[in-house]
Design goal:
This protein is α/β, with parallel strands linked by helices and about 675 residues long. Pfam families: PLDc_2. This is Phospholipase D-like domain-containing protein. GO terms for molecular function: hydrolase activity.
Length: about 675
C-alpha cells in the first residue's frame, strides 16, 4: 500500500496490475475520509477477494459505518455458459450458490466470516444477481462516494473482476475517473432497482453462516464499558438537556418553547434537518431564535440564512432580538430573491444553518426552482443544516411531507433500522423513492418521528400548560349615513357586473360558467369590508382594464367581416396565452423534449388538465365564424360600457364620501395610540 504512487494514479489513471495494482488502489480509496459507500458491478464477486483488503475493509465498515452493494452477473467462467444454456434462472441460482459455497470454503478466517455475516444481516452489505435477458453481464465498475445518493465520487471502470486474479494477478485494463461518476451511478442505481436483478443477500448469509465455527460465532471484540454506554446512548437515548433558566433570553420562553428548542436542535444535530410544525400561536419564530442562540453560543462564527416573506422581516427581527440574535448573525432573503440567485453564486454562499419559514410554499414539491437550488446549496456544503418551519406541512399528500423533510436530510446519519433509509439509499432523492416511502406506513411514520415536531395547544401539556395570552380588542366604528348607504348598495352594484375581460370565451359558449367573474366579485366585497383605500384602488384597476378593452373592441367593430374575426381570434388567443403554449409544444415536438420525465403524479395530472383545457379553447377559437365574432364583440362592448358606468358611479361616490374623514383609520389610530 505504501509503495503505491498516488501521484501516478491521478496523473495516468490507468490501473493494469503491472505498475499499479487494483488491490492497492482499493485499499487507498477505502481509507479516504470522503468514501463511505462502495458500489461494485462485476461478472462475479468472490468473498475471498475481500481477504486481500481485509484490514482496510474492516475499518471502512466499522469506523465509517460503510455501505457495500454488490451487483454480480453470470460471467465467471466457461462453465457458467454451459449451465445457462437452455436453462432458467433457477439453475443458475443453484450454480451461483454452489460457486459461492466453494469460494467461502477456501476462507479459513472464521472471525472475518462472522463479521461479514453481521454486516449482511444489518443490511450494510447487499448483493443482487443480474437475471436479465442478456447473455452475459460483463460490467466491471467500482463506484466510491460519501453516500449512496451522492452525485459526485470516484469511478473505476475496466476489466477487473473482484477476485484475486482480477485484483492483482492478471494484466488488466482499468481507468480511474471522477467526471463520469454521476452517469455510472445513475446507471447502477437504475439497474439495482429494476426487475433485471434479484436479491442474493439471504442466500449469501446462509452460506457464510454455515462456514462459521461455533467458536468464531461466539467470539467477540469486547469493548470498554464507557464505549458500550456511549453506543447504547446513541441508539436508544432521548435527548436530555435543560436550558440555563438564569439567562435572560431563556426567561422569555414558555415551557413548550424551551422543550421545542432542545428537541429541534437535537434533530438538527442528529439528521442535519428538522421540521418545526407547531400549530399557529405557539411561537415557532421564537423557538427558531432559541435554536440560533444555542448554535451561536456553541461555536463561532455561526451564520444563518433566513428565507421568509419580506412582510415578516420586522416580526422576525423582534423575536430574534429577544433571544439575543443580532442582525449581523443572519442574512434575510425572500423566496423570490433566493430563486433569482445564479447557480454559480449559490455555490459560494456559506452558512451553517438555513431556516425556511412557510416551508410548504415552494418546497413541498422537489421539482421547483426554489427546492432544487436549495438542494444544490446543500450539495456544495454537506455540513449545512436546514430548519423548515410550517404550521401546515400537509397538503393532501404524504409526498409533500416527505419532500419538506428530506431537503436537508443527511442520509448517512439515519439509523440503519429505519425503513425509509433503505429507500433513500437505493433510489436517491427521486420521486420514485419518495413514492415508496409514502406507500410504506412504517417508513413514513419513522421519518415523521425522526424529523418532525408538531404540537398544538390541545395536544401539548394538558390543562397546566401555559401559553402567551392573546387579546384582540373589538373596535366599534360609526360611519356617516351616506357611507353606510354606499356599503349597503355595494352588493347590488357588484352583483350585476359582467367583467368581460375575465374568461372571454364565455361569449362563445353559453354553457360556460363565469367562475373568474364570480371570484372577482367576492374579492371586491372583501376589499369593501376591509379598507376603503384597498377597495378604491381595486375599482380603479378594474376601470383601467375595462377602458383599455373598450378601446380595443371599438377599434375591432370598425373592421369588415374576416378582418374583424381574425382580430377577435387574436385577442382571445392572447387572453389565454395560447401563442406561448403553442410555441412550447412545437419546440417540445421538434426537439423531442419531455418535461414530464421528472414530474410527479400530481403535477402530471395538473399539466394534463391544463393541456385539455387549452386545447378545447384553441378549438373553440378556430371554429369562430364571422357572424359569431361580430355578435360576441358587440356583447362584450355592451357589457364593457355597462360595467364602466356602474363602477365610475361607485368610485365617484366613494371618493366624495371619504374626501374629508376616514372613520376606520381615525378610530384605529386612536386605539393604537392608547396602547
Amino acid at each position: 500500500m505504501e509503495e503505491m504512487n498516488i501521484d501516478q494514479l491521478y496523473r495516468e489513471r490507468v490501473i493494469d496490475n503491472r505498475q499499479l495494482k487494483m488491490v492497492d488502489v482499493l485499499k487507498y480509496l477505502l481509507q479516504r475520509e470522503d468514501v463511505r459507500s462502495l458500489d461494485v458491478a462485476v461478472g462475479y464477486f468472490y468473498l475471498s477477494g475481500l481477504l486481500l483488503i481485509k484490514d482496510e475493509f474492516i475499518k471502512f465498515m466499522d469506523e465509517k459505518n460503510g455501505q457495500l452493494r454488490i451487483l454480480m452477473g453470470n460471467e465467471t467462467n466457461g462453465q457458467t455458459a454451459n449451465v445457462l444454456s437452455g436453462s432458467k434462472y433457477k439453475d443458475y441460482a443453484s450454480y451461483i450458490s454452489n460457486e459461492t459455497q466453494k469460494d467461502t470454503d477456501t476462507i479459513d478466517d472464521g472471525e472475518f466470516l462472522a463479521r461479514l455475516a453481521g454486516w449482511i444481516k444489518e443490511g450494510r452489505i447487499k448483493v443482487q444477481v443480474y437475471t436479465g435477458d442478456a447473455n452475459y453481464f460483463h460490467a466491471k465498475s467500482y463506484l466510491f462516494a460519501y453516500s449512496q445518493d451522492e452525485t459526485h465520487g470516484t469511478a473505476i471502470v475496466g476489466s477487473s473482476n473482484f477476485s484475486r486474479n482480477g485484483l492483482e494477478g492478471n494484466t488488466e485494463l482499468n481507468v480511474l475517473s471522477q467526471d463520469n461518476y454521476y452517469a455510472l451511478h445513475r446507471w447502477y442505481s437504475n439497474l439495482w432497482l429494476s426487475d433485471e436483478t434479484q436479491a442474493f443477500s439471504p442466500d449469501l448469509l446462509k452460506i457464510v453462516k454455515n462456514n462459521i465455527s461455533p467458536r468464531d460465532a461466539l467470539k467477540r471484540d469486547y469493548k470498554p464499558v464507557n464505549q458500550t454506554y456511549y453506543e447504547f446512548a446513541n441508539l436508544y437515548a432521548k435527548p436530555y438537556a435543560k436550558l440555563d433558566e438564569q439567562k435572560d433570553w431563556v426567561k422569555e420562553l414558555f415551557p413548550h418553547q424551551r422543550s421545542g428548542v432542545i428537541s429541534i436542535k437535537d434533530k438538527l444535530d442528529s439528521f442535519g434537518t428538522a421540521v418545526l410544525a407547531d400549530g399557529v400561536g405557539l411561537g415557532k419564530t421564537r423557538i427558531a431564535g432559541g435554536v440560533m442562540r444555542l448554535y451561536k453560543d456553541d461555536s463561532a462564527p455561526y451564520k444563518t440564512l433566513i428565507v421568509a416573506d419580506k412582510k415578516l422581516k420586522i416580526q422576525w427581527a423582534e423575536e430574534l432580538d429577544i433571544c439575543g440574535i443580532e442582525s449581523a448573525d443572519y442574512d434575510w432573503m425572500s423566496r423570490e430573491e433566493f430563486v433569482n440567485i445564479p447557480w454559480k453564486q449559490i455555490r459560494n454562499m456559506k452558512y451553517s444553518l438555513v431556516i425556511i419559514d412557510e416551508a410548504h410554499i415552494g418546497f413541498k414539491n422537489n421539482n421547483t426552482q426554489a427546492y432544487q437550488k436549495m438542494r444544490w446549496l446543500k450539495d456544495q456544503h454537506p455540513e449545512l443544516r436546514g430548519l423548515m418551519i410550517t404550521a401546515t406541512p400537509w397538503n393532501n399528500r404524504r409526498e409533500d411531507v416527505i419532500n419538506i423533510g428530506t431537503l436537508f436530510l443527511n442520509i448517512d446519519d439515519i439509523p440503519n433500522d429505519r425503513n425509509y433509509k433503505q429507500y433513500l439509499l437505493l433510489g436517491g432523492r427521486t420521486n420514485k423513492a419518495v413514492r415508496k416511502i409514502a406507500a410504506d406506513d412504517k417508513a413514513f411514520n419513522q421519518l415523521w418521528e425522526d424529523i418532525f415536531l408538531q404540537r398544538t395547544r390541545k395536544t401539548y401539556g394538558g390543562k397546566q400548560a401555559q401559553f402567551a395570552t392573546r387579546t384582540f380588542p373589538t373596535v366599534d366604528i360609526q360611519f356617516e349615513p351616506r357611507k353606510n348607504k354606499i356599503f349597503s348598495d355595494n352588493f347590488d352594484a357588484i352583483a350585476g357586473l359582467k367583467f368581460p375581460y375575465m374568461d372571454p370565451i364565455k361569449y362563445l359558449d353559453p354553457k360556460k360558467e363565469p367562475l373568474g367573474a364570480k371570484q372577482l366579485k367576492l374579492l371586491l366585497l372583501k376589499r369593501a369590508d376591509s379598507s376603503w383605500v384597498a377597495y378604491r384602488n381595486t375599482l380603479q384597476n378594474i376601470i383601467d382594464k375595462l377602458t383599455q378593452l373598450k378601446t380595443n373592441l371599438s377599434y375591432v367593430t370598425s373592421m369588415p367581416g374576416k378582418k374583424l374575426t381574425d382580430r377577435f381570434k387574436g385577442m382571445l388567443s392572447e387572453a389565454y396565452e395560447l401563442p406561448d403554449y403553442q410555441a412550447k409544444n412545437q419546440l417540445t415536438s421538434l426537439f423531442n423534449i419531455s418535461a414530464d420525465d421528472t414530474a410527479d403524479e400530481h403535477e402530471l395530472r395538473s399539466r394534463n388538465k391544463k393541456r385539455i383545457y387549452l386545447d378545447k379553447i384553441t378549438k373553440q377559437i378556430e371554429d369562430i365564424t364571422n357572424a359569431k365574432a361580430k355578435k360576441a364583440v358587440a356583447s362584450m362592448l355592451a357589457d364593457c360600457n355597462e360595467d364602466l358606468e356602474v363602477l365610475n358611479l361607485v368610485l365617484n361616490k366613494l371618493n366624495q364620501a371619504y374626501q374629508h374623514i376616514d372613520e376606520k383609520m381615525d378610530k384605529i389610530i386612536s386605539v393604537v395610540s392608547k396602547e
